């Protein structure tokens, strides 16, 4: 890191106010994504779960708080729970509790995204796993697009293929790994069969570099057992 870069970093950090999960509420339609895709199967699954949660007046009474950061213009940017936010949006839920982790509103747009990337708070990749400019990230959760391999990764984790990790966007790493191994046509033709194939791949040595890898000798965990890694934003959920 050059002296100039170090100076810029110090200046950016000086303008960032850590809020440690300050509670507030936000309109779901105004939340800004920090990734481009979700798995629509996962969104549908969360929508089904929402039907069992009490909803009144277009807002929910659940205790979960979505971690966000305040960015340029005072907009709130999601740090996690994009699937949950999209499910709320699709269900017509108006507002949701949020936990504001940091106030980065004094930063320029360019500096904001640079800090987000430095901290692992954004994932500007398309549905094929290709990186794109942060300017192409969706403007609202309703614009998130489908990455079926992201749904596949979640299904494999629930089936015990790997455990949830605190590493940022770890399941996208699994999605990209499976994307290289399983043809999209096979996934579209039979999702359940693809899960079986993916489970075998997940415990193989080829996946040992991925966060949450269990390996062949450790694949005794099931989703229902509830074994999970640490949340990336403790105390928020």
Series of H and E elements? HEEHEEEEHEHEHHHH
Architecture of the largest domain in CATH?
Alpha-Beta Complex
Which band does the percent of strand residues land in?
15-25%
Q: If you compute it from the alpha carbons, what radius of gyration comes out, rounded to the nearest whole angstrom?
A: 18 Å
Total discrete domains: 2
Number of strands: 8
| CATH superfamily grouping of the largest domain | Conserved hypothetical protein from pyrococcus furiosus pfu- 392566-001, ParB domain
Q: What is the average per-residue confidence, as pLDDT, rounded to a whole number? A: 85
CATH C-level name of the largest domain: Alpha Beta
The SS-based structural class is alpha/beta
Instruction: Order the strands across the largest sheet as they lie in space.
Output: 1-7-5-6
Number of helices: 8
C-alpha termini separation: 35 Å
Largest sheet: 4 strands, mixed
Which assembly state applies to the chains in this document? single chain
Helicity, as a percent range: 25-40%
What CATH calls the topology of the largest domain is Conserved hypothetical protein from pyrococcus furiosus pfu- 392566-001, ParB domain
Low-confidence stretches: 3-8, 220-237
Based on Cα principal axes, name the global outline: globular
